[in-house]
Amino acid sequence: QVQLVESGGGLVQTGGSLRLSCAASGRTFSRYAVGWFRQAPGKEREFVAAISWSVPTTSNADSVKGRFTISRDNAKNTVYLQMSSLKPEDTAVYYCAADLGQPGRVLVTAASYAYWGQGTQVTVSS
Fold it and tell me: Where are the alpha helices (DSSP H) in 1-126?
């Protein structure tokens, strides 16, 4: 099993940046695929970005391409989501998720993940 804790959310102005962190417990975290999802009030949870293990492969939703970057530091058991050029429509609770995956394969659907963090709020003011 793995436990996930997100941090780094907050209030930022349009055009600003934030870096979210997803810290994981468990010695085998380096073998987990990890994804970031977000959920705005009244909307369904949506995919944001994902990263595989072993062969570093990433995937971003079209809405965040060129603005968000996912990365991982297996030595620190942490996955990051660097968010730049933030827009009010990026306002949401951001969740990280993890699951065992095949090397080099990203998981882009929420149903693919068994383990979830509690979420961190990101608010972008206009």
Answer: none
Cα angle vertex 109, ends 106, 112, to 5°?
Answer: 75
Are the C-beta atoms of 68 and 17 separated by less than 8 Å?
no
- Name the CA radius of gyration of the chain, rounded: 13
Over residues 17-63, the pLDDT tens digits come to 999 999 999 778 889 999 999 999 999 999 999 999 887 799 999 99
CB 73 within 8 A of CB 81: no
E-only strand ranges, 8-91: 10-13, 18-24, 32-39, 46-51, 58-60, 68-73, 78-83
Cβ-contact 50, 36 below 8 angstroms: yes
